[in-house]
Amino acid sequence: MSSKLFTPIQLGGVTLPNRIVVSPMCQYSADDGSMTDWHLMHLGSLAISGAGLLMIEATGATREGRISHGCTGLYSDNNEAAMKRVVDACRRVTRSPIGVQIGHAGRKASVQVPWLGGKPLSAAESPWQTVAPSALAYDEGWHTPRELSAADVAGLAQAFAAAAGRALRIGLDVVEMHSAHGYLLHEFLSPLSNTRTDRYGGSLENRMRAPLEIAQALRAAWPKERCLGARITASDWAEGGFEVDHAVAYARALAQIGFDYVCVSSGGAVPQQRIKVVPGYQVPFAEMVKQGAPIAVRAVGMIAAAEQAEAIVASGKADMVALARGFLDDPRWVWHAAERLGAKVDYPPQYARSRAELWPGAKLARAGLAQQR
């Protein structure tokens, strides 16, 4: 039986050779938003993974929209040149599409990198004023954000569009709008972080207004012959929060604007969330969005085994899957999945002799891995 996971998929004007995506993964290793040699090594390795799409990490549309001092941005000429250097190198080793996730961290910005604690920056660590739909701190001890005005929202739409323009000059195939994980656009969507009483708050229609205005600006700036998507949230995992029926309505609205796909995630809006983490724990959300909205859907969340990924796509629960830590653990995940599912993928010629049919040691290596598990 042929593998559905290893069949192509058309998203807008872009064709993915298979349904496996390298998820955006923050590396916290940039210099004032500009990629460094670390990104060249990290993304270069993943560019030869065989995945159908390689996504660049969450990238700030503005300097203040970065999560930390180490996060990437697309707000300056230096950022653009540094990202182009990395993308050009990846292009030389892969034929798969490459994309970037553009976002704004909102009230969760101005924090230290994870390995230094991930806490809000102190006065001695060059913090900056955070912004949000409402002047509500994420948690005790976090910076209190400035409430955005209607004019600020319009300015953010322009900033997202300008970042997309830089992505176009770089030559990227996909732009993904980040509206999940408790960052700014998710903050507008969730009633737990948005207590406004103007046209941007209150009803679901109003809470969707700012993200959809930014989505419209991105659609106007990004060519339809490429691919435009969004990472959305399907649950705040907290009472009174944003839930999957809201996500379906949001996905429908994005489809009407002309988005090509949504990647369905959850959580991150509030610290009191109670997430039930089990294998594939977010896949049911993706399935419900796929059933309720006329748009391609990508599933994420504790997807680690080839058979698990195949079942998600083959059963129609989602059109694609994305892995993050699965690729950090095994950058050759796609090659190994193809072996297990009887599919064929291209190897770089320099690595072709490591194919299972050419390398007798493959069986020994796989057996040893199975014993360890």
Q: Could you walk me through the main structural features you see in this protein, from its secondary elements to its overall organization?
A:
This protein is an alpha/beta fold and 373 residues long. It folds into two domains: 9-342, Aldolase class I (TIM Barrel), CATH 3.20.20; 349-373. It is built from eleven helices and twelve strands. It has helices at residues 37-47, 77-91, 150-170, 184-189, 204-221, 244-257, 283-292, 306-314, 325-329, 333-341, 361-372, and strands at 9-11, 14-16, 20-22, 53-60, 98-103, 131-132, 146-147, 174-179, 227-233, 261-265, 296-299, 320-323. It has an eight-stranded parallel beta barrel, surrounded by six helices. Helix 1 (37-47) links the parallel strand 3 (20-22) and strand 4. The longest helix has 21 residues, at 150-170. The protein is globular and about 65 Å long. The relative contact order is 0.13.
